[in-house]
Specification:
single chain; two-stranded antiparallel ribbon; flat; mainly beta; 4 strands
Length: about 100
Amino acid sequence: MLDRLGPRPTPGPEGDSSGLYVSSRSPTGFEVRANGSPTASSAFSYRVVAKRKDIPGLRLEKVKLPDPIKELVKPDLPKPSEPPKAPAGPERPGR
């Protein structure tokens, strides 16, 4: 048993396609077309989603969000230590 809107199919191409769309639907079926090609013959799969009529669609309860933070405070972090200095190497000519 479905609700009054009927099924909601989502087609997916199974080959080279410029895209598919559902051109019409009803409680008993639907029609799929290819973008830009009235005579396309690619294979496709589909998934159908529908609301059941015999189960009420309960909504989630409302949640109160916390107040937004007005000012961010930068924590006091220790200063990083100086990196070790490279040892002095022999002089190279041309540099």
